Amino acid sequence: MTLSAPAARAxxxxxxPVDNVLEHVERSLQAELxxxxxxxxxxxxxxxxxxxxxxxxxxxxxxxxxxxxWNGTECAARLEGITxxxxxxxxxxxxxxxxxxxxxxxxDLLPSAPVGNAILSEDPKLQDSWxxxxxxxxxxxxxxxxxxxxxxxxxxxxxxxxTEAVRSISLxxxxxxxxERWVPAHADLNWANMTAPRFSLFDWEDWGNAPRGLDSxxxxxxxxxxxxxxxxxxxxxxxxLESRDGKxxxxxxxxxxxxxxxxxxxxxxxxxxxxxxxxxAELQAD
Length: 286
Hints:
It is built from nine helices and nine strands.
């Protein structure tokens, strides 16, 4: 018999009281958190410390912590050739009242501010040097080795998941959805997890092996409201996106935009629909 962890209560840390959590982290890391710098997101809270570092605190249900754990930022510290904040240490504890765990990772401060929100509505006008650093890090990441499996949106990516997503936006099943090449990916690549004007890539909680092109396609999908930016992403990552796996990942990204929870006024919907039709036709012709 397989035992499964109980599901955790859904919590939004943007509104949930977190003072006790912040105090626990301060005692454990022996550092003071600057309350004026606190950034609250749905599943995480971050703040600057009195020793010029950053602490990111995440709450995750036991049912969302698989065999590989949830130490992505720690494991990413060993990666070579990637521009990312240095990792200093962490504290992990189980909640006394709920089936959840908390984890606080301390890293160096970001060299610049995040580019923007996860999905952009304006062109950030990034310099060529930024794109060069971006490409160098993504190429270096794909050349690494890991046993980790990517967990975009905390869900382990599998061949079955890819097939389900692709089929959800395709009216036919007359092309193969089998992924040929799996490589390490950040798995949460969007404009909120990179900095500019100095490039750095952060928030490594979900990284691991994934179909080639996942990161490139995800960033393209986050750029669709700014056509020139989406075109730039496709140009810079064309060696990924023009591959067969990259085409499947483009459809995977399109499924996120065109899925049942899509907002009818989302400006990304029409370009995603057009690209999906184009890619499906190409795969059918192969």
